[in-house]
Write a structure and sequence with these properties.
This protein has 21 helices and 19 strands. The protein is an alpha/beta fold. Among the domains are: 87 residues; 252 residues, P-loop containing nucleotide triphosphate hydrolases (Rossmann fold, 3-Layer(aba) Sandwich); 41 residues. The strands form 4 sheets. The chain has a 6-stranded mixed beta sheet with strand order 10-11-12-8-13-14, sandwiched between helices. Strands 18-17-16-15-19 form a 5-stranded antiparallel beta sheet, with no helix packed on it. A 4-stranded antiparallel beta sheet has the order 1-2-4-3.
């Protein structure tokens, strides 16, 4: 059974993730459920929840996308159905009809595409499919949420009578309106509505001249509202009919409500089902915002996260347009515990929270932002001790609270536990607190728990170096600027860079030297050695990166040259085959030509036939016997070579055409030279050079010495100006 404490969820800010998912829900019930998400209690439930979200995500890539699941809550309607003799209004019945139709649509969809969405189909099978609710409601309520005229014969007759009387009332009122308006008794507004009745707006001075019932007056008293006497009868008749209509509508609604009461439990199931789908859709959308995936869930005890992002930090930085640095971390049987050290503000705590939050999200059925090759196992417990836990209410100091927390760790830690401890051992005397922290760590190690801790204590770094299944790690810093690089480096402890950071922040050098003398010399040397190692590693990292980059470029260039060489070799082989084939054809052509010439001279047919047969026999002796299949392959090869050659020739022709077009365009773009009498010219498509004798109306007379010709000036190009 998986149990993850409320404290761990608070430490890892899991509630903020739930608020983000809640904001993506479209139903009120779904929003409530989103805020109550907790890690699933069993491995089977975890995998089922993850597959639900993964299938919903895959639907975005399918032609058959999942239908909408939104609905209006029907809690009030369900409550009324449980009260005897109560009835639902038409608008309430419309909501029930809508939720029933939405559910049926989803159930039918998942039944049809159960091969594409097996887990979502299984989720849907708990809700029965029925059209009875829709049939009952649709027989009475129209698509606008009103009771249909044909819901009963009585209602139909009443509404016809209402329409008839309403028409008579309007006709009668219209006549009185026109008559009194012609008499000048009415105000400019002519008419109004009082208590749902049409009334005439009569000027106060003429009120006695208009027969009817006074229904009221304006605030100033200048207008009296009178219902004409002729319409009073129709109004009374209409009121009676409307009362009878309402009674009939209530009777129909009561009858329909009674028929729907047996479906109360089913309607509750509808709400549960659609709100569950709403949460699944919101989880999917949240995962897409994170570029989240479902990593491989492994039976082995291993946690191999590649390019893992902190979800909250990623969304926050993305909104600001800032970069988020991913981390890669591995825990397995050979490396169960990682001790992260290094200066503050380097990203140790964020790395710790990233691992914890991603694990909790995954075990709550959410997609997480990691590389697709990541592998994750499931833990029965995730224990955390992160942040300042001073308790004012319980009068406990930070250290007392942490000791109490460690005691809980000792009770719960086993080989199915992931523990996360930030600033392990702090809050007390460094030597004593460090010793106690070391003892705790040894217990966690003996119980084969998985865990990550951050610390500044040298003894914990040394313990991680001595024990085989614990490793040191540090957050990388630029050795020159001492700026954090936000990258986790496994394999060695990190220096706190205490004095280096102090010097960078302007603390006097003399004061730093004085502080160094107060610290044990061995500790300074140990810390300095770690710092020097980190600096050297930073240099080696840059060199390695540069060499890898050069190697990749060289490999890329090598592949490119090999491809070019392969293409050239292929072309040479094709050209050689074509050349040999053409040479053979030329040879045969020459032989046939010689035979033709001999026959032309001596007219000896037998000799011609003999020579021809001899030539054919010689050529056939060179041919290899081939099956029909081999001949087909050979012919196809020849055709392919021929097509390739034709294609290349066509490409060359096209290139020449393009070059010619470019030349023509360039020629057209050149500024035109104004030709004058005496200029030496030639035609654009000719070679002979002549002299212009006359130019008139765009025509020039060109003298070539022996003859002259008239030609358009546009067809001439200048060779030499007249001297």
């Amino acid at each position: 059974m998986i149990r993850i404490s409320e404290k761990t969820l608070i430490d890892l800010e899991f509630g903020t993730v739930l608020e983000q998912i809640e904001a993506l829900c479209v139903t009120d019930y779904g929003k409530q459920k989103a805020l109550k998400i907790v890690p699933e209690p069993t491995k089977e439930r975890v995998l089922f929840a993850l597959k639900q979200v993964n299938e919903y995500k895959s639907s975005r890539l399918q032609d058959s996308s999942i239908p909408a699941h939104g609905y209006d809550a029907i809690d009030k309607e369900i409550q009324l159905l449980g009260i005897e003799n109560s009835f639902l209004e038409a608008i309430n019945l419309k909501k029930i009809s809508s939720i029933s139709r939405t559910t049926n649509h989803l159930l039918a969809f998942f039944h049809k595409f159960q091969e594409l969405y097996p887990v979502l189909h299984e989720t849907s099978t708990v809700v029965p499919f029925t059209r009875e609710i829709l049939t009952l409601i649709d027989a009475v309520i129209d698509r606008f949420g009103e009771v249909k005229d044909n819901a009963s014969p009585t209602l139909q007759n009443l509404r016809r009578a209402i329409n008839r009387v309403q028409g008579q009332l309007n006709g009668s009122f219209g006549k009185d309106l026109s008559r009194y308006l012609s008499f000048g008794y009415l105000d400019e507004i002519k008419e109004s509505v009082v208590e749902n009745r049409r009334v005439l707006a009569v000027k106060a001075m003429h009120r006695r001249k208009v027969k009817g019932a006074i229904m009221g007056s304006s605030k100033t008293g200048s207008i009296i509202y009178i219902e004409p006497e002729a319409t009073l009868q129709y109004s009374r008749e209409l009121a009676t009919l409307e009362f009878e209509e309402r009674e009939e509508v209530i009777r129909i609604l009561k009858e329909l409500t009674d028929r729907l009461r047996p479906f109360v439990n089913l309607l509750q199931q509808y709400q549960e089902y659609l709100s569950d789908m709403d949460v699944i859709a919101a989880k999917t959308q949240h995962g897409e915002q994170l570029n989240g995936i479902m990593p491989t869930i492994t039976e082995k005890r291993e946690l191999n996260l590649k390019d893992a992002y902190h979800p909250l930090l990623y969304l926050s930085n993305t909104a600001k347009g800032e970069k988020t640095y991913p981390q890669s971390i591995t825990l397995n049987q050979e490396n169960r515990i990682i001790v992260i050290s290094g200066p503050n503000a380097g990203g140790k705590s964020i790395t710790l929270k990233t691992i914890g939050l991603l694990q909790v999200m995954l075990q709550s059925g959410m997609l997480i932002p990691v590389h697709e090759y990541s592998r994750v196992c499931l833990f029965d417990r995730v224990l955390s001790d992160i942040g300042d836990n001073q308790s004012i209410e319980n009068h406990l100091s930070t250290y007392s609270y942490r000791l109490k927390n460690m005691n809980q760790f000792l009770k719960k830690c086993n080989d199915r536990t992931l523990f996360l401890i930030d600033e392990f051992g702090t809050g007390s005397d460094p030597e004593l607190g460090g010793a106690l922290a070391e003892a705790f760590l040894e217990v966690f190690y003996e119980r084969e728990s998985f865990g990550i801790i951050t610390t500044h204590y040298a003894n914990l770094k040394m313990l991680a170096n001595e024990l085989p299944n614990i490793s040191n790690a540090n957050m990388m810093f630029d050795s020159r600027t001492l700026e954090p690089l936000f990258k986790l480096h496994l394999g060695e402890a990190g220096s706190s860079f205490t004095f280096e950071v102090a010097q960078k922040n302007g603390i006097p050098y003399g004061l730093i030297n004085k502080a160094k003398k107060k610290v044990a010399r061995g500790k300074i040397r140990f810390d300095k050695s770690i710092a020097d190692l980190q600096k050297e590693r930073s240099k080696l990292q840059k060199t390695t990166t540069a060499l890898k980059s050069k190697e990749q470029r060289a490999e890329s260039e090598k592949e490119r040259l090999e491809k070019i060489n392969e293409r050239i070799q292929h072309k040479l082989e094709n050209y050689q085959e074509l050349y040999d084939s053409n040479q053979r054809l030329i040879y045969l052509g020459n032989k046939v030509n010689d035979m033709s010439e001999r026959y032309f001279n001596n007219k000896k047919k037998k000799e011609l036939i003999g020579d021809f047969l001899k030539m054919v026999e010689i050529e056939n002796s060179k041919r290899k016997k081939q099956t029909a299949k081999q001949r087909k392959i050979e012919k196809a090869k020849e055709e392919r070579i021929k097509k390739e050659v034709e294609k290349k020739v066509e490409v060359i022709r096209e290139k020449k055409k393009e070059e010619k077009k470019k030349e023509e365009i360039i020629e057209k773009q050149k500024p035109k030279v104004v030709l004058k009498i005496g200029d030496r010219v030639r035609m654009l498509d000719g070679k002979s050079i002549g002299t212009i004798d006359t130019i008139e109306k765009g025509k020039a007379t060109v003298n070539y010495g022996i003859f002259t010709t008239n030609v358009s000036v546009d067809q001439l190009e200048l060779v030499q100006r007249k001297k």
